[in-house]
Amino acid sequence: MRPKSKTIGDPFNGWGASIIDTLDTLLVMGLQDEYNLCRPHVNQLNFHWIKGGDWSQGYIGLEDEVDKDGKRWQIGRDPASGMPVFESGIRYLGGLLGAYDLSGDQLMLDRAIEIGNILSRAFNTKSGLPQGSRFDPGAETGVYHLSGVSIAEVGSMSLEMMRLSYATGDRKWFDLVQRAMDYIENKVIPRSKFKPLIPMAFSPDATGPISGSYSFGAMADSYYEYLIKTYKLLNGNEIGKQWKRVYEESIDEARKVLFADIDIFGPDYNMMTIGKWEHGTLHHETEHLACFAGAMLSLGAKLLDRPQDMADAGRFTGTCYWIGAATKTGIQPEVVHFYHSDDEKRFENMTTEIGPNGEPRLWHPPITEPFHEDQVNYAKMRKTNKGEWLWSDDRSPVTNNSGRAKNRPITYYRSLIGQPAGTKRVTTYYINRPESIESVFYMWRLTGDRGWQDKGWRMFSSWMNHSTVAGGISSITDVTRDPERGIVYGDNMESFIFAETFKYHYLLQADPELLSLDDYVLNTEAHPFISDPKAHKPGFEGLWDASTVKDQELGARAEGTDVQKWARMEFLNRKRPNGKAPPQRQGGSGRGMGGGPPPPPPN
Ligand code: DMJ
Fold it and tell me: How confident is the model over 468-516, as pLDDT tens digits?
């Protein structure tokens, strides 16, 4: 949704991702009436329709809809609908399963089964890994060859598919994701430089070594998360040992390859990052996306008794928190790149003088004599076309021994450059991501240290203060800009804000017994799945009372929501000969519109 302009944008099939992603959060927050309001939408959704196209069947026009040759107009199924596999898995399938596990509402499971069956088709590949990005679920092309995929997309389906199998007693979904994991362990990991870490992008069907970049951030993140969480979902059974082994070895290797101390602030800060290894170098960057790792490491530390992981989880989550707290808005930017501690460029010289707005002034370093061009720091100085050297920040001339220092004691000190301090590059936007608050939440639940609740509350205040707009919570283009100069909104409100960001903030301050981490595994979109189905039945927490919907009118199953019907009509109108809409008929919808036979013509 676009909360500033109050318009919509829907990259996820036109199925109302914000509604499905919100269902279990509503139950967690005690908003049962609002949950009930969403049920007709869930019931009516037509999963064959993606933004008006129908990937499963074509459309036959009404009798009087003829083309220029007088033939009755019709079109085939829409092969270009492009269903996103990973996103549909974590948001829609995950959202319905999470809602089912909190409520026991059969409607949610019925619809989850339908999506599970559609997503199963994405596994019809040579390797058995799912097609990662968008696919055509209606294609009848036999076994599909995959070229480049990201490990996050192809390696993050296990929780949803396995939970669906446990909930239904049908193992077909379980087998698909387990076969994919076997392929990853036997055919992908052996090709990697830093086994068992897997490069962010690779070709599953190739056989040679994979050269690529490694990280716990974008394109890799949830694969590692799903290793430990699938282990928990498998409840220590024999297959679970494989997931545990790959997880533990991955973390051990990541500690050598990706973990780095951020020591530019001195030891008191105890900061570290989990960076990106690329072209032979470890970049000391912190992606907001990678900040989920505090949650993963702390969970793994508890489940597998790995105390070093808990220590690193605390350090890394603290670093993610610090990055946000160190900006002008108190909000964490998308990515920061820290200086290495041996890089002299990380400092700038400041004076003890105070500028007109109360800010400490920059102080240009004294230039040693004679002044040679090879002493120039191009980031700080620039040459005019007259050959004169100027300081980049205030364009004053560069002079030997700094003209400004004359007749005065040198009253400058060194200060770390950047905002947050010590960063050389910052990708400044924030799209309401949940990863840091997710880790703060896990740290609180798994250590009991109330300091994490305080940190989370500060994050919540900053977030609400700066992101709230009339139509909701907006993304921000630059969190390092002084809010007094005005916030520039990105006008985007992703569905994960409801599934994750609000849920984690809420649970952080709520009774720790609510949604206990002993009883549930949360998927990467924070949808809770019961982890021990023998111990707990869906709805066991009593968050939903089925009697409240006894007489609820749900509309026709899978007929399409009103929004979908409009999209379908617009799609068909675009395709019609001459783009002409058919004559308006009351209630008429025709085949392919989810309706029955056309009504009799009007008198
Ligand atoms: C969510 O959709 C999921 O957490 C996913 O794994 C990656 N990140 C977004 C939110 O940032």
Answer: 999 999 999 999 999 999 999 999 999 999 999 999 999 999 999 999 9
Q: Could you read off the pLDDT of 373-423 as tens digits, one per residue?
A: 666 777 778 889 988 888 887 787 777 654 444 445 556 677 899 999 999
Q: Closest by alpha carbon to 218, among 269, 288, 148, 304?
A: 288
At position 296, the amino acid (one-letter code) is M
pLDDT digits 0-9 by tens, 26-78: 999 999 999 999 999 999 999 999 999 999 999 998 888 887 788 889 999 99
Question: Ligand 1 pocket: which of 12, 433, 497, 522 to mutate (most atoms <8 Å of CB)?
Answer: 433
**Atom number in ligand 1 closest to CA 438:** 4
Confidence class of residue 595 from pLDDT cuts 50, 70 and 90? very low
Helix H or strand E segment including 564: helix 562-575
Decide whether any atom of ligand 1 lies within 6 Å of the 525 Cβ: yes
Reported in sequence order, the residue ranges of 417-532 that DSSP labels E, i.e. its strands, are 423-427, 468-469, 472-473, 520-522, 528-530
Helix, strand or coil, per DSSP, at residue 337? strand
How many angstroms separate the CA atoms of 541 and 325, rounded? 36
Burial of 83 (0-12, 13-18, 19+ CB in 10 A): buried
Question: What pLDDT sits at residue 143?
Answer: 82
Q: Which two tokens stand for residue 421?
A: 């301090």
**How far apart (Å, rounded) are the C-alpha atoms in residues 191 and 204?**
10
Instruction: Provide the β-strand partners of residue 351.
Output: 412
- Cα(503) to centroid of ligand 1, in Å? 13
Amino acid letter, residue 419? Q
Q: Cα–Cα distance between 206 and 299 in angstroms, integer?
A: 34
β-sheet bridge partners, residue 110: none
86: Cβ below 6 Å to ligand 1? no
Structure-model confidence comparison of residues 560 and 361, the more confident one:
560
CA–CA separation, 499 vs 509, rounded Å?
17
Which residues are CB-contacts of 126 (< 8 A; sequence separation ≥ 6)?
143, 144, 145, 146, 204, 205
Q: Is 501 in the pocket of ligand 1 (CB under 6 A)?
A: no
How far is 249 from 240, CA to CA, in rounded Å? 14
Structure-token match 């919509």, residue found: 8
Instruction: Establish whether residue 222 lines the binding site of ligand 1, counting it when its CB lies within 6 angstroms of any ligand atom.
Output: yes
